[in-house]
Automatic annotation (TrEMBL):
This is Inner membrane transporter RhtA. The chain crosses the membrane at residues 49-73, 85-105, 111-128, 133-150, 156-177, 189-208, 214-237, 249-269, 275-295. The keyword Membrane applies. It is a multi-pass membrane protein. GO terms for cellular component: plasma membrane. Pfam families: EamA. InterPro entries: Diverse_Substrate_Transporter, EamA_dom, EmrE-like. It is found in: Cell membrane. Keywords: Cell membrane, Membrane, Transmembrane, Transmembrane helix. Its main location: membrane.
Length: 300
């Protein structure tokens, strides 16, 4: 059941309404692609914070500021039915765990590699329930791509790979729960509450891990920037896009994410990948595009 767009659960000031109209005016494909670029640039900026507050501290800053901004903008009502609360809580917990796993993975492996491995999650979502031979071929192509990622790279730690896989599992759940969140809430209200739940999951770990280093003015500024680039902008765009396009179309557009991550890692973080790593990324991208194009539609 959607929250009443005429009043209940809507923001109390005009900026949120303006934000909603602005998002609605952007074509869904552009929303997804801009969100991909934003989240990867944000991840690159975040990785440069690791030396000061660690990966867990960086996640805490990102989620805390994202939650603060979204809650301030949308001022969501907490009067939701039990089904809506279950979706929001599940979304928030998955969001928090996904970010923790992904940023911990980044402390061990390059950005492009981490995102490529993580992308197995969305690919699995696209193939759930399929028994066709062609979809089995996409699975083999993606698996081959992941194997190629380790070709000639002795610096790829197993811990980082496992963390990226865990983040991928959470990403798959995020897509499924994100669609449900869009159906049960309006505008950015569900995202705001879900991000608040994610903050409750991640911030205690960040404080324990980083202590007073989190409260340095320069660190707080960078943390706020990471939150905007990696959370507020892309999640808002993705959820709006999921309201307007089928999940499988969303999956096709998201297939660009590993390639964008590798390019951002190259130019921003100077993380050079070998030929086999680029081939592996193209294998995973190709498998994702193929899987989402040939998957049997499960939506109307």
């Amino acid at each position: 059941m959607h929250v009443d767009r005429a009043g209940r659960g809507l923001p109390r000031f005009g900026f949120a309404a303006l934000a909603g109209r602005t998002l609605g005016a952007i074509p869904p494909p552009a929303q997804v692609l801009f969100g991909i670029l934003s989240v990867q640039v944000g991840a690159a900026v975040a990785k440069q914070l690791f030396g000061a507050v660690g990966s867990v501290g960086t996640v805490a800053l990102r989620i805390f500021f994202a939650a603060a901004v979204l809650l301030l903008i949308w001022r969501p009502s907490l009067r939701m039915d039990r089904r809506t609360w279950s979706v929001v809580l599940g979304f928030g917990v998955v969001l928090g765990v996904m970010n923790l796993c992904f940023y911990l993975a980044l402390s061990h492996i390059p950005l492009g590699v981490a995102v490529t491995i993580e992308f197995i999650g969305p690919l699995t979502v696209a193939l759930i329930g399929s028994r066709r031979l062609v979809d089995g071929l996409w699975v083999l192509l993606a698996a081959g791509g992941v194997v190629l990622l380790t070709e000639g790279r002795g610096d790829l730690h197993l811990v980082g790979i496992l963390l990226a896989l865990a983040a991928g599992a959470c990403w798959g759940l995020y897509i499924l729960l994100g669609g449900a969140l869009g159906r049960h809430t309006s505008e950015g209200t569900g995202l705001a509450v879900g991000m608040g739940v994610a903050a409750l999951v991640t911030v205690p770990f960040g404080v324990i891990n980083s202590g007073t280093a989190l409260f340095s003015p320069s660190i707080l500024i960078l943390g706020a920037l990471v939150a905007l680039l990696s959370s507020v902008v892309p999640y808002s765009l993705e959820l709006e896009a999921l309201r307007r396009i089928p999940p499988r179309v969303f999956g096709i557009l998201m297939s660009m994410e590993p390639a964008v991550a590798a390019v951002v890692g190259l130019f921003v973080l100077h993380e050079n990948l070998g030929v086999w790593q680029w081939v592996a990324i193209l294998c995973v991208v190709g498998a994702s595009v193929g899987a989402t194009r040939t998957a049997k539609p499960r939506d109307k």
